[in-house]
Amino acid sequence: MHDITTRLVQPSEDIPEGFASLSQGVFHASTILFPDVASFLQRQAQTHDGYSYGKNGTPTYYALASKLAELEGGGKTALVPSGLAAVVLVNSAVLSAGDHVLLPEGIYGSTLDTTRRLFGKRGVQYNLYRDDIGAGISTLIAPNTKLVWTESPGSNTLEMQDVPAIVSAAHARGVLVAMDNTWATPLGFRPLDSGVDFSVQALTKYVGGHSDLMMGAVTTRDDARSKALRESAELLGYYVSPDECFLALRGLPTLPLRLERHFASALHIAHWLEGQPAVARVNYPPLESSPWHALWKRDYKLGSGMLSFVLKLSGLETIERFVEALKLFRLGNSWGGIHSLVAVIPLAAGKMAAEAEWLVRLHVGIEDPMDLVDDLQRAFAFS
Ligand SMILES: *Cc1c(COP(=O)(O)O)cnc(C)c1O
User: Cα torsion for 303, 263, 199, 62, to the nearest 10°?
Assistant: First the structure.
């Protein structure tokens, strides 16, 4: 029983004697009881892999954390209340006043915001680097550089990065590497197998998969770093509800099935979009025509359902008519759930071709792909 698809379906082993349900038990707690004063006074020793206080971990928390660590190919997972909280957790565990961190231009906007506005205020310096920098990251590493963030493909514009090359160059200089792997999940790419030190996922997206929960995870294979993460989570006062853990555990066994469907349908739609006269460009690395295709093909086993495109007539009015004519692609933020979604994203000046001001981001859900194409076709006719 080696395949992760099979292992994700196995019920966890904390089922009470005689209650052989396939469902995960949900355990709520603030207080944890201790049998005697000695163990009560020792409770701190159990903060990071046992039970000391509801905030620091319940059986439901550990059931999800250990499944996610398996999905990452081994290591220890810390759970936090959102994807952004996972970013804050890594920054908090690694960066102190006077330290320097590097981020790719395509990084998730809120990761940049929190690094700049929250950690910047506390004396952390940062620089952006070009997504295609690869081993050239060396030239940006300063004596006080402690961390390099990677995110491949990047949020909204989907630039790929040569993560293995960045890891080698950073490690050669003693710098740690974190990767936001929300787009691919470890089913598409396993950051820790490529030497990444911290693998981050917004579980809000594909692991939750049903647009009804928010959570984040950070996984590492190093015991000291794992302890530092759990300590930071405790100091930040982070708490993850067992009900949310249950929802994530409910989503996990179908993750491989869902992702295959999201990927197949998104690839079909990406190809179809390329053939539309109104479309200037499609951003989706699994497309052979993508400038990032070679890297994607080299490193990734699977794609996912999020892509974006630019219209030739990129004025906001054209986009408004297009988006408002859609019926199956609903207008809303976030993605990774079973439903198809559309979002309108303003492009940072100079980020892409000069002609484009707006990006249309699609999340391709698990509906019939033919219906989704019909929906897009009708919207193009309206716009
Ligand atoms: C959505 C997202 C996040 C943040 O997740 P939340 O749970 O919404 O805070 C972080 N990184 C990436 C790449 C995302 O897409």
Answer: -150
The answer to whether residues 160 and 152 touch, using CB atoms and an 8 Å cutoff, is yes
Letter for the amino acid at 303? G
Q: Which tens digit of pLDDT belongs to each residue from 53-103?
A: 999 999 999 999 999 999 999 999 999 999 999 999 999 999 999 999 999
Contact 369, 264 (CB under 8 A): yes
Query: Could you tell me whether strands 145-151 and 306-311 are parallel, antiparallel, or unpaired per DSSP bridges?
Result: unpaired
Measure the CA–CA gap between 265 and 196, rounded to whole angstroms. Answer: 30
For residue 378 the two structure tokens come to 């009708």
Whether 240 lines ligand 1, by a CB cut-off of 6 Å, is no
Q: Is 180 in the pocket of ligand 1 (CB under 6 A)?
A: yes
Residue to probe by mutation, ligand 1, list 87, 149, 204, 241, most atoms within 8 Å of CB: 204
Q: What value, to the nearest 5°, has the Cα angle with vertex 270 and ends 269 and 274?
A: 115
Sequence-distant (6+) residues with CB within 8 A of 255 are 8, 71, 185, 187, 206, 207, 209
Tokens of 265: 């349908």
237: how many CB neighbours lie within 10 A of its CB?
A: 8
Query: What stretches of 145-205 adopt beta strand conformation (E)?
Result: 145-151, 176-180, 198-202
CA distance 103 to 200: 14
Task: Specify whether the CB–CB gap between 301 and 187 falls below 8 A.
Answer: yes
Spatial contact of 218 and 199, defined as CB atoms under 8 Å apart: yes
In the sheet that holds 198-202, the strands lie side by side as 76-80, 216-220, 198-202, 176-180, 145-151, 100-104, 125-129
pTM surpassing 0.85? yes
CB 199 within 8 A of CB 72: yes
What distance in angstroms lies between residue 45's CA and the mean position of ligand 1's atoms?
A: 32
pLDDT, one tens digit per residue, over 306-336 is: 999 999 886 889 999 999 999 999 999 999 9
Cβ(259)–Cβ(302) below 8 Å: yes
